[in-house]
Design brief:
The chain is mostly helical. It has one domain. The protein has ten helices and no strands. α6 runs antiparallel to α7. It is elongated, with a radius of gyration of 27 Å. The termini are far apart.
Length: about 270
């Protein structure tokens, strides 16, 4: 084969400029399609989170309006349901439910029915709602490149399991409110795991958002309120129990706002 023939063969076997450009354009189109599919997936999962968050907020509003009054000397700023969760002794139970004497018996019976209703709704609706809200929000963060967010999914699952046990304990306690019962012995452990796991979710959200754009730094700082509040409430429930729900709400509000932004405004 002479030089002319070899040169011609090479030219014949190689794509011309137009063909190379068409191949490159196909590859770019495929990448754009993949990117758009990824963005749609992120929007979809954040919309699921926002929808679950809306259910959760509706339940919080309803329960805050119809929240029962304590029968004992519980502080006015301490939500009775949280005080019941964090009860550790007979004195703590009496602060919520009163002493059970004839004068306060009707109040106690009414409060027990209200607590049982709240815990039943919590098991049936609120737990699935907040579980889906947190898991979808964290998966959305993970799909946006914040790998640590997946750790929060595990902590959410742990919190849900502990929350179920906590509610079962409270439902088991209300018939007699016996501070020496097995239910009372288990309750502090279940409550502690639940609140600490939810605090860990807040910490994971803070770490994830703190690694993002500068505008997320304030959001990350707000999320850190949650682990601080939950640890403080477990260590000193009488002092910090009244604010633990607000502390937890800090990171949940940030995740909800982030979800709304990603679901509808399409800004990273």
């Amino acid at each position: 084969m002479d030089g002319t023939t070899a040169s011609t063969g090479v030219r014949a076997g190689a794509p011309d400029g137009g063909e190379a450009e068409r191949v490159a354009e196909v590859a770019r189109s495929a990448r754009r399609a993949d990117d758009e599919a990824g963005r749609r997936g992120v929007r979809r999962v954040h919309r699921i989170s926002v929808a679950a968050g809306a259910v959760m907020l509706a339940l919080v509003l309803v329960t805050s309006v119809s929240s029962p009054s304590p029968c004992g000397d519980l502080s006015a700023r301490y939500p009775p349901i949280v005080a019941f969760e964090l009860a550790r002794s007979e004195r703590d139970l009496r602060a919520v439910f009163g002493d059970g004497r004839r004068r306060a018996l009707r109040c106690r019976q009414t409060l027990i029915r209200s607590m049982d209703t709240v815990n039943t709704v919590d098991l049936a609706v609120f737990m699935p709602a907040y579980g889906l809200f947190l898991i979808a929000a964290l998966i959305g963060l993970r799909r946006r490149g914040y790998r640590i967010a997946i750790v929060g999914v595990g902590f959410t699952g742990l919190a849900l399991v502990a929350d179920v046990i906590e509610n079962v304990c409270m439902l088991g306690l209300t018939p007699r409110l016996d501070p020496t019962s097995t239910w009372m012995a288990i309750l502090p452990w279940a409550t502690g795991v639940k609140w600490l796991a939810l605090g860990a979710v807040g910490a994971v959200a803070a770490l994830a958002l703190g690694r993002g754009a500068r505008r997320h730094r304030v959001s990350a700082a707000v999320c850190l309120v949650t682990p601080i509040a939950t640890v403080a409430a477990i260590v000193r429930p009488h002092d910090f129990g009244p604010v633990v729900a607000s502390g937890m709400a800090a990171s949940w509000a940030i995740l909800l706002l982030d979800g709304l932004t990603q679901a509808f405004v399409r800004v990273e």
